[in-house]
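pinging the channel bc i need a second pair of eyes. not urgent but kinda urgent?? the chain im working w is below, pasted from the shared doc
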Amino acid sequence: MLDIKFIRDNRDIVKQAAIKKHITVDVDKLVALDNDRLDLLREIEALRAEQNAQSDKVKNLEGDERENAIIAMRALKESLQSKESEHKKVNQKWQDLMLQIPNVPDVTVPDGESDQDNVEVKTWGNQTVFPFESKDHITIMQDLGLVDFERGSKVHGFRGYYLTGDAVKLSFAIWQYALEFFSQKGFNPMMPPAIVREENLYGTGHLPNDAEDVYMTQDKDYLAGTAEVPVMGYHSGEVLDEAEFPVKYLAFSPCYRREAGSHGKDTKGLIRVHEFYKWEQVVLCEASHEQSVEYHEWINRNTEEFIESLGIPYRTVLNCGGDLGQGQVKKYDIELWVPGEGTYREISSASYFHDFQTRRFNIRYKDSEGKMRFAHSLNCTAIPTPRILVSLIENFQTADGEVMIPEALRPYMGGQEKIGK
């Protein structure tokens, strides 16, 4: 959420931000509502002051004079209640519109409408080419008894899956290796709740924008689609110690997404499933653009290094305006090479938000001058499973249908070097 004073003082900048992100919102209407809201608030304060003055005065009156004063106070009370009711309605409209205002993207963010317009900024490794007829991950995993989609669909429904055998061991190896790898970067491990209250999704900006993509419980709580949501809620309403910055969490959680906007896309395999697991990097730092930029590059590089240690070819893209979320200032996506499709597929996103999220969560700190400020927030996928299995298995397949295990993962699989029949 942006500061309303910033919006009022920089109306054209906010309008341009909405255009660049392809978000439709009426900034002028918001400012008009803010004017109405403030005018009503001033009227309410004036009526309350008059009410207090009349209340003190009536104590010293008697007879008809007192009765007339009481009648006047009743009228005053009715007027006050009417203004308060009007203010409540206007304030609700103002709050609803405030939640739709996008953050201002960085000047380095390119123009574009979708992920097709993202700009490649880096490639690593050679696109894998096989001297034999290669297979996709679905065929390999089914042949090796690593996945069961048929029973997954029977039990869960569309996009359901069971990981079995060495695929389970491989997943645990990835999780354990990621825990060690990112912990060495100074992250504090965390296992947050996956069921969260509605306000946490509003805090991160996933609501109201992604309402169709989240699962709701019968108690009107939600299943988080990323650990970013509960981790950001961890410090909601708190004043942090500036000396502790940067605060760095590595959070592991199950994640749930309805994939409501992806009908017809990736209907087979493990690319786009309803439930998965993910390690997530979350950082809170002081309110400095320079530090946000520095940590953004750092958390993205952390994941790049992790992928490089596994030996999987990838590229990094800078997201265009149309592929940014409402609150993101800038975002990188890391995409892994998928030989079976002959293309790169997203595995990680790294974003920074300035104080967009922390204003909603009311996460503050007192700076060296004693001034209260909202912290800045950042997040980046460390690694998700089972999606990474797609690239890992396809890139490390052998001519006889087996899969070589990356050396970095072998210690976590008891020294096992390959997955075979």
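so Residues 63-98 form the longest helix (36 residues). and The chain has a mean pLDDT of 95. — does that match what u expected or am i reading it wrong
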